[in-house]
Amino acid sequence: MLLIGMFDSPFVRRVAITMKLLEIPFEHGNWSVGKDFDRIRNYNPLGRVPTLVTDDGERLMESGAILDYLDELAGPERALLPRSGPERRKALNLMAMSTGAAEKGVLQVYERVFRPEERRHQPWVDRCRLQMSSSLAAVDRHVGERGAAQWLVGKRMTQADITAVCVYTFLNDTLRVGEDAVMFQSLALLAARCEAIPAFQETRVPFFMPAS
Ligand SMILES: N[C@@H](CCC(=O)N[C@@H](CS)C(=O)NCC(=O)O)C(=O)O
Questions:
Q1: 50 prior amide bond cis, ω within 30
Q2: Whose CA is nearest to atom 17 of ligand 1?
Q3: Could you give the angle at which helices 85-114 and 122-146 cross, rounded to 10 degrees?
């Protein structure tokens, strides 16, 4: 299988960590959405990552859809998302809050990476920051309610934990959300626990953020 996209993206990284945890081997297409745009578009008309090319040549897009495929490959015992019921809904909800925060973070990052300074619209950036922080704070509250030594859902690590940590680490690297230590303390503790695990360490590539 070929996983396209750099690990500095939280969406790519959550797929890569999942593949490592599930022991599904893959080649890594370490291509940038900036300079390798045309190359990526050969596999995904949107030019987005992650994109997964399966051993059968099928091209899968959207990290959520890719994770669904990987869970199916792994089977119900090893799948990283609870199969049904309240635990599945809770995990999906937490993942939506985390990926939503990441999307609002990515929009702020792209303001700096792709848009010239004189064309930026600060009220839009502020709105994104508020949405990102509020969503991340909601995830942080859930982590806090569960307690520092627990997982977000059930008794073992699930996709809800992997996604929350990938997003928190990305937003901390790029937008320094962790400096607001009061708001995201519980997430910071969960991230510290997870980032020590080999699958997380092997995929840890800090995003290069331009200064302004
Ligand atoms: N909803 C998508 C989001 C993926 C996404 O935003 N990827 C970014 C990299 S972090 C990307 O490909 N950006 C390039 C672009 O959209 O032009 C997913 O979950 O896969």
A1: yes
A2: 48
A3: 150
CB 106 within 8 A of CB 114: no
Q: Which two tokens stand for residue 18?
A: 């999942």
Q: Is the model's pLDDT at 164 over the cut of 80?
A: yes
Nearest CA to 4 out of 35, 26, 20 is that of 26
- H or E stretch at 51: strand 51-53
Sign of CA dihedral 16, 105, 147, 181: positive
Beta bridge partners of 51: 4, 61
59-61 and 27-29 beta bridge pairing: unpaired
Q: How far apart are CA 16 and CA 3, in angstroms?
A: 8
- CA-nearest residue, atom 1 of ligand 1: 62
Q: DSSP string covering 5-38, please?
A: S-TTSHHHHHHHHHHHHTT---EEE---TTTTHH
Contact (Cβ atoms closer than 8 angstroms) between residue 30 and residue 6: yes
Task: Tell me the three state secondary structure of residue 84.
Answer: coil
Residues with CB under 6 A from ligand 1: 9, 11, 33, 47-50, 62-64, 99, 106
pLDDT in tens, 62-121: 999 999 999 999 999 999 999 999 999 999 999 999 999 999 999 999 999 989 999 999
